[in-house]
Write a structure and sequence with these properties.
With 411 residues, the chain is an alpha+beta fold. 41% of the residues lie in helices and 22% in strands. The protein binds one RNA strand of 76 nucleotides through residues 1, 3-4, 6, 49, 52-54, 57, 59-60, 76-77, 79-80, 105, 107, 109-113, 115, 253-255, 271-273, 275, 278, 299, 323, 325-326, 328, 351, 354-364, 369, 371, 373-375, 383, 385, 387, 390, 392.
Length: 411
RNA sequence: GCCAGGGUAGGGUAGUUGGUUAUCCUAGAGGACUGUGGAUCCUCCGACCCGGGUUCGAAUCUCGGCCCUGGCCCCA
């Protein structure tokens, strides 16, 4: 039997309904903040992604040659595409631009819990606003969005300037090696590396910086930071908003183009792959031949949010089964139509079953049955049966609709 | 790319000194039952992940691959 490709998933209706429910909660939050949806191609020139992230990522992408000999890649993330689109289509649009997206991405990696080769991201990008309030808005929006889904998570906010200031005397490759140690909390390795670089005193400052939980402490360790005021403003805006977060100056986000504020969210009930959100301020447009516009954005790992939410029950549709005899069929079609016009999900038997068998099936799949035989066809009434209680009465279609609508799903 | 544990109908399972037609539950279809369901009974449907090897004979032993689950690495 044919199998689906490794790391991909099929979604049955129950799961899709749960996913759409959460998706729409995020969409609604984005809408309320003024972030409007954009859509970019599923595949792009390979170069778009290597320019952003380096040649190394080719190994972790779905890369292919099209019939015209073009080097293309399935998108491994969406920020690069959005910024490309901004340069191509919207450079002169009034700033700031508030955009969001919900779309699938592809990465060629070893699957595990919360990590798939096709996965969905809900992200936002705020383009062209370079202020403390812009940074704060994006973080508050991220928190709002995660709150709307119902996940329990920890949000960590940091700023790259502190670490960059401590490391400013090191060459970029050395900086990267040090950051790698910090990211893994490998303090022994860090010490060895710094000793080898003849900078042993840095080890203490760096590890202390990671332990800092207030701006004041961080400023004391890292010294005179460029943009100090902006950082203070951003953090005081977050504090004023009353949102929950913690400061963490060890967030490195691994990428050179992040410029300042960075933040990450972690689900409290997931294992190794528990990061559900990542974002920060960055400058990327100039890489793709655009202006050096400031941007700030984040992406939420939608599938991980769903894993974290687990088997949470979602509200189900009320289902009405239209059950009829041969004589009642024409009237039944008419009744089904007006039920649907009233917004009620209505399903008819397609198997030419007898009345008993139709009801047997309805009892497994529906909340109510509308029974229509010769008697109902002649009187233009319907028999409404509550499949939960067995209670049954004959009334006109409009009253039946009212009854079903007032009752709701009872499965 | 690395490590561990797995893979028998749609879902869940039984099945080793290798041996008839692979067990049971559930789901699905049909019937007993052409104006009223969930019970019961009957019938049907449907599986040994793939390939090589050993053997008279492999779900079972063996090798390779694929896939799943979790972890490492990575994580844009």
């Amino acid at each position: 039997m044919l199998q689906k490709p490794r790391g991909t998933r099929d979604f049955l209706p129950d799961e899709m309904e749960a996913r759409r429910t959460i998706e729409w909660r995020m969409r609604e939050v984005a809408r309320l903040w003024g972030y409007r949806e954009v859509c970019t191609p599923e595949f792009e020139d390979l170069e778009l992604f290597t320019m952003r992230s380096g040649e190394g990522i080719v190994e972790e992408m779905y890369v292919f040659l099209d019939k015209g000999g073009r080097n293309l890649a399935l998108r491994p993330e969406i920020t690069a595409s959005v910024i490309r689109m901004y340069i191509n289509e919207a450079k002169v649009a009034p700033k700031p631009l508030r955009w969001c997206y919900f779309a699938d991405c592809f990465r060629y990696e070893r699957p595990q819990k919360g990590r798939y080769r096709q996965f969905w991201q809900f992200g936002v990008e705020l383009i062209g606003a370079d202020t403390a309030l812009a940074d704060a808005e994006v973080i508050m929006l991220a928190a709002d969005m995660l709150n709307a889904t119902g996940v329990t998570y920890d949000l960590k906010v940091g700023h790259l300037s502190f670490m960059k200031n401590l490391l400013k005397d090191l060459e970029p490759p050395a900086q990267r090696r040090v950051m790698a140690h910090l990211d893994k909390k490998d303090y022994d390795g860090l010490k060895a590396t710094l000793d080898a670089m003849d900078k042993p005193e840095l080890a203490h400052s760096l590890t202390t910086l990671l332990e800092c939980r207030t701006l004041k402490e961080a400023f004391e360790i890292a010294g005179n930071i460029p943009g100090k005021e902006r950082i203070e403003q951003t953090i005081s805006l977050l504090d004023a908003s009353g949102m929950k977060y913690s400061l963490n100056f060890g967030i490195a986000r691994g990428l050179d183009y992040y410029t300042g504020t960075v933040f990450e969210g972690f689900a409290q009930n997931l294992g190794a792959e528990n990061q559900i959100l990542g974002g920060g301020t960055y400058r990327l447009a100039h890489l793709f031949g655009g202006d050096d516009v400031a941007s700030c954005g984040f992406a939420i790992g939608f599938d991980r949010v769903m894993v974290s939410l687990g088997e949470t029950q979602h509200k189900k549709d009320t289902v009405v089964a239209i059950v009829c005899t041969h004589e009642g069929r024409d009237h039944a079609l008419e009744v089904a139509r007006i039920f649907r016009e009233a917004g009620i999900r209505s399903e008819m038997d397609l198997m030419e079953r007898g009345l008993g068998a139709q009801l047997a099936h309805a009892s497994k799949t529906a909340d109510f049955a509308i029974v229509i035989g010769q008697r109902e066809a002649e009187s233009k009434n319907v028999t409404l049966r509550n499949l939960q209680t067995g209670e049954q009465k004959t009334l006109d279609p409009k009253s039946a609709i009212a009854e079903v609508a007032s009752h709701g799903a009872c499965r």
